[in-house]
Amino acid sequence: MSMPEPASAAGAPVINMGTAIRDGLLEAARRDPSVIFFGEGVEDPGALFGTLKDIGKHIGHDRMIEMPIAENGLIGVAIGAALAGKRSVVTLQRVEFALLALEQILNNAAKMHYVSRGNHKVPLVLRMIVGRGWGQGPEHSQSLEAIFAHVPGLKVIMPAFAEDAKGMVTAAVEDDNPVVVIEHRWSHYTTSAVAEGYVHRPLDGPRTVRQGDGLTIVATSYMTLEAVRAADGLAEAGYPVEVLDLRVVRPLNLDPIVESVARTGRLLTVDTGFRMFGIGAEIASEVTSRCFDLLEAAPVRMGLPDHPTPSSRGLVRGFYPDAARIARTAGEMMGLEEATISQVEEKILADRGDVPIDVPDPFFKGPF
Amino acid sequence: MAENDYRLRCMRQMLRIRLVEETIAERYAEQEMRCPVHLSVGQEATAVGVCDVLQSEDRVFSSHRSHAHYLAKGGNLNAMMAEIYGKRDGCIGGRGGSMHLMDPEAGMMASIPIVASSIPLATGTALSDKFDGNGKVTVSFLGDACLEEGVFHESANFARLRGLPVVYVCENNLYSVYTNLADRQPERPLTDVAKAHALESRHVDGNDLDAVREAASWAVETSRTGTPTFLLLDTYRWREHCGPNFDNHIGYRTEEEFQTWRVRDPLERYRKQLEEAGVLSAGSYAELERTLQAEVDAAFTFAINSPLPEPNEARAHVYA
Ligand SMILES: Cc1ncc(C[n+]2csc(CCOP(=O)(O)OP(=O)(O)O)c2C)c(N)n1
Question: pTM here?
């Protein structure tokens, strides 16, 4: 079984996504002296899960702005600095902390270009981390991309693979717009071969990571990995499906999705966030209106159920969509026989082994 | 032990909290407590000194570091341990884990793990209690980092404007995760921040139980009459920000600094004081330690034996 990331340059070192993001940020900051970093603990021993490790050593500590615990003020300051020509990169340990700064993000960052009739630019990167697992609970593990994606003027990206993440954060830093980067903690641990030096991946939307005719799965962030595992199981059973890693939530590029659905006739979306009012709802609705006549079945959305994220490992059983459930749903949508579906499902569960529900599956660690 | 002697009562409470948290630290590696834990070992005198002057109907709000506040306010130990173990008998049925301890019956209103997020809630219960003229006071426990958040200032301004019965208790342990106060705030007395909002304030050694209790007594009574107050209590967290270990070796603070605070151990210091005053004997302390440890062990057993909740329980209570 191979990692879905397209093969990088031969001999590229295998690193995890957290390190890849750090390397991408460092490369971008080296090339452009106007890049400055803001965060709570930007240079502390943890260095934001290692994603800012030693950056100050390479580019100078004055470009690492330690942030008092004052998110609205400080993100406003970062926006102001961006207006004056800096490229501000803000990192928060959890998405939830950005909620204190929604005012600045949604009112100022998202609108300054518009209200200045194009005169102002806000080259701002807002990195926020989704903290799933180990009982993080209702206020430390939400995946809130839909909130940011709702607002015109923001770009929202959700990388799932290491090299992609490296190139996308670089592109985000170089972008003249505010870019919200939602990083899933469990994706941070995934590894793959990552090209050294400067890597740039344009923020241009979905990428096909598995091919097949049976069905189109559009997944975000960590859910892409679960979807790939489901797709591999289905392919092994003789039913290959397509998996698109959405990568860029806004601006939403629907063309590759519509193209795929036109071939497969079926759409399944898998969100990291809540299902209701989620990214999948937008995609399913748009695809339905664009190619209703090509659909052979009603689109199905998977995502988190309609209640907050509980802490206990007892309560999270079944809370997150996983490969087995994705495979089952896809199988049912394709009209496969129950025996086939449960065979695929059981194989996936067996491969997962007894990895506890609240820690990342080592399956996603390479190299493969 | 005479319950009417607050000194013995507070000593006992501090020791109990210490034993609970030391036991958590010791057993965390078993990986059965599957949620982040923020220990307040070394900071017991602030929680105990403040809560001891409260009535049981008075209210308390806390943060991510809530074990000591919960216990000092009379929260149920079994329910706390079950919550940390993610079990059905947890104080909120496993929904929140260690960062969401609450026991409204004991006046422990809520613990909220977003920095400063519970400060306006405390201000709001004080507003409601003032409306009701019921004489209750609300204590808002906050860390030094909370003074950086706008919502502290918004709340303090409002509390003074409306004359609310609220006490803002700032436990200054010098750190926000790994970042020293000096790297987050300009040098100025933290009480000046309260003063700017026209709050009355006191600043005492947060490791000195008697000093804390006396200041708290003043603050609570002053607030009860409609002048919101601010207490600044200097203390120190011994272990890492989140987790059971010591972390002096990773470089954000020095071993020397840790040791200067370590010798100011609020528990040990108070024990000595009481022994010297002849209120406590070495024998009775040892006996107390045994009794409390037995209670703590029983709470762990209770938690371990409690069942994991079923997934469908997570759907309950989304709406009232
Ligand atoms: C709004 C928000 N920003 C950041 C965090 C991450 N965080 C959790 S605890 C903490 C430090 C808080 O320090 P302090 O209030 O002094 O309390 P202490 O941990 O020292 O007891 C931080 C920054 C958070 N939980 N909420």
Answer: 0.96
